[in-house]
Amino acid sequence: MYAASREASSRAREALSAALAATSHIAATTGSELFAVVAILDDQRSLRVALADKSVSSSARAELAERVFGGKISAATLAVLTTAVAQDWSRAKDLVDTLELLGREALLRAATDRGRIDAVEDELFRLGRIVEDNPDLEQALADRGKPAQAKNALLERLLAGKVEDITLQLAEQAVGRSHGDAGAIFDRLSELAASLRKQLVAHVRAATELTQQQREHLAASLQRIYDKPVTVHVQVDPTLLAGVVVRVGDDVIDGSAIGRLQRLRQSLG
Prior knowledge:
There is one protein chain. By secondary structure, the protein is of the alpha+beta class. The chain folds into 2 domains: 3-196, no CATH class; 199-267, no CATH class. 67% of the residues lie in helices and 9% in strands. It has 13 helices and 4 strands. The chain has helices at residues 3-22, 27-43, 45-51, 58-69, 75-85, 92-113, 117-132, 135-142, 148-159, 165-177, 182-196, 212-226, 257-268, and strands at residues 200-206, 230-236, 244-248, 251-254. It has a 4-stranded mixed β-sheet with strand order 2-1-3-4, with helices on both faces. Helix 7 runs antiparallel to helix 11 (182-196) and helix 9 (148-159) packs antiparallel against helix 10. The mean pLDDT is 91. It is a peripheral membrane protein. Belongs to the ATPase delta chain family.
């Protein structure tokens, strides 16, 4: 985002925080309603452009949002929306993308309020691994020619009753709106959940399943390195032969046997 949109996004997030702080138990409703607004704006280009038109006064844009959405969404969600559209955005897309992000954050806040944020984060990570290991599923979820309803129906068949309802809602919205790598989408959602808990995420590939003690030891070691709590997600990868590969953001720590062999091969090159 350009500077204007970054500032606008910050103001919109402040409005969301204020709305959720003012009234308890509305986070899930607010998240769902923001997703509904995003779907409408995606479908109606003229409305999307009008709500982000900087040549029109901020009050006029807020009034337009009230006319269109008033009575259809809660007062809390409307307050977030009118604050967002009253800001100056570099692009209409930035407005819609921010509303989507705020919807995700509201749902994750709801998971936190229910004491289920750890489960949601872990389920999103594991969903990413399932998609990554199943090319046919990944292709089906990323198919640009397939309508969002069909993708959501597929996720519903796979996940209903097996994951938290918030996990399913986040997954369906993300896949329905995106045409990219589904595994990467779920990873970003998992990382967002961790960031809202002020934690880093370590993606660990291990040659064999790690014990709980090994996971805790690894998490403690990474916390000392990064001076911040770290959530460890483990994926078993027998091709590593032994050891682990750890990725935290752009940092990669390769302690696997295959990695050592590759480095030895290069040194002998």
